Amino acid sequence: MKKWICKNCGLYKKIIPSHIKSGRKVFFIQNVDNINKTIKKGAVVSRNKDLLIVLSGSILYMVKDIDVYPEDAPVYFVYNMFGACECTTK
């Protein structure tokens, strides 16, 4: 997870959904219904604009890229606890 820490400010870099490419292992939330949600792990098969096709087990899921995060990235509550990088330099 060290690669997600900004060298300038020391905070965690934000995930850029458009940078998630095919072959990347990701986590995503599957809505079973309005109440039950499950977190699944899979690999991105392809991308079409903001829609990803993710293979999890033997099932293909269509997921918006904003609902997916790479498996090696910090989870969302880490950004809330430690802060998110706002630096403009890459």
Topology record:
Elements: E1 25-31, E2 37-48, E3 51-56, E4 59-64, E5 68-70, H1 76-82
Antiparallel strand pairs: 1-2, 1-5, 2-3, 3-4
Brief descriptors of the model:
globular; 1 helix; 5 strands; mainly beta
What does this structure look like?
With 90 residues, the chain is mainly beta. The protein is built from one helix and five strands, in the order E-E-E-E-E-H. The chain has a five-stranded antiparallel β-sheet with strand order 4-3-2-1-5, with no helix packed on it. A hairpin with a 2-residue loop joins strand 3 (51-56) and strand 4 (59-64). The longest helix is centred in the C-terminal third of the chain and has 7 residues, at 76-82. The mean pLDDT is 87.
For the termini, the CA-CA separation is 17 Å
Please summarize the sheet with the most strands. Answer: 5 strands, antiparallel
Radius of gyration: 14 Å
* Unreliable residue stretches: none
Q: Write down how many β-strands occur, each being a DSSP E stretch of 2 or more residues.
A: 5
**Strand order in the largest sheet:** 4-3-2-1-5
Helix content class? under 10%
Order of helices and strands: EEEEEH
Brief summary of the model shown:
With 90 residues, the chain is mainly beta.
